[in-house]
Amino acid sequence: MKVGLLFGSFNPIHIGHLILANFMATNTDLDTVWLVVSPQNPFKPSNTLQHEFDRLHMARLAIADNPNLGVSNIEFSMPKPSYTIDTLTYLQEKYPSYEFVLIMGEDNLPLFPKWKNYERILEYHKVYVYPRTGSITTDLPDMPGITFVKAPILDISATFIRQCIREEKSIKYLLPDEVAEYIKVHRLYL
Question: Which residues form the Cytidyltransferase-like domain (predicted)?
Answer without folding.
Answer: 6-163
